[in-house]
Fold DUF2851 domain-containing protein.
Amino acid sequence: MREDLLHFIWKYKKLSIGELFSTDGEPIELLDVGTHNHLAGPDFFNAKVSIGGQLWAGNVEIHLRSSDWYAHGHEKDPNYNNVILHVVWEHDTEVFRSDNSPLPSLELKNYISERVLTNYRALFDKRDVSFVNCERNLAQVDSFVMGAWLERLYFERLERKSNGVAALLAASNNDWEEVLFKLLLRSFGSKINADAFKGLGEALEFKVVRKLRPDLMKLESVLLGMAHLLSDETVHDGYYIGLKQEFEYQKSKFGLENEAVRRPSFFKLRPANFPTLRLSQLANLYHAHETLFAKVVGSSHVNELYRLFDVGASPYWQNHFSFGKPSKNSAKRLTKKFIDLLILNTVLPLKFCHARKIGMAVHEEILGIIAGLAAEENSIISNFKKQGVSVKNGMESQSLLQLYDYYCTKNKCLQCRIGASLLH
């Protein structure tokens, strides 16, 4: 037995509420369970309970045993003096508040159906479970319950991501263009070079990017130079030398410092993801759009965003992946799959945070955009599919990642609508 099950039972009234009695034999009528409190203090605020015909309004505390009241020191804490009912699985001692007034207790073990307990035990029975607790029954969850929960999880994930946007906004003195640049830079680094590109964004003031944006070579030279990608003395082709000379000039002009910037890695990367190409593509994106932030937040359809991010690297890179090493000629444009990741990890959190700041509702717009994105492909999503879960688009894959990371791996099954539905 776990305390979170008792919270669940009380919150959703999974007990015989028509015939409840306190441990003193007084009839209890449950009128309002109150508001679940996940912070310090009593477990449920502002409940309404009739005890022995007397209406009480106040808080409810829940424990496995009555003696836990003393084990947690509540008898010394005046914050618990407004507790009107002590709800426990087992009543093993009488309980008094800090002012020595007796506290009525409700012992739950005789009021919970065997079906709920059986389903609860089955949910946490980890025998023959290889992925998540509910995998044996996951495919049987009602589609409406699943759909509503996944939508809620997506905005929960978006909220978490937007916290990082808000922190960048505060650090940039509310410069949304700068925030977008730093977010994009990190996303262009992908998983392996995200931190290195993040460091580049911290070292390079965005005002420099603004000034250099009209001149592609200048902007590209600074991005590559700040990333220590123009420091190879063995490369002698003309484009490389020109970029290196330009960076040295801009470095002196703007007083640029890149000692703290980590050189990005090429190891284990496919050539299309080489940092040289990604920084060139980013330079081309900013060269093509003077007010990129306004265009991003103004895009209400996924196809507008695809057109916005339809850029390639500079002409030199059409037959190069690295400086001084010619390769077969090929287009080096951002792929649809990569743009999808930019939209998921940068555009939508930014749109969400910006809309919240200005008091605008964009939930439907965001759902419309993400529904047009392909579902992500990784081991977690593959495992959900193996359990019979349909994953049709980017919203559902993002939601399942949120579910796995913050509920499944933490055994928060009773805070999950899927787990709760399986106890009914």
Remarks:
- The two ends are 17 Å apart (CA to CA).
- The first strand starts at residue 20 and ends at 21.
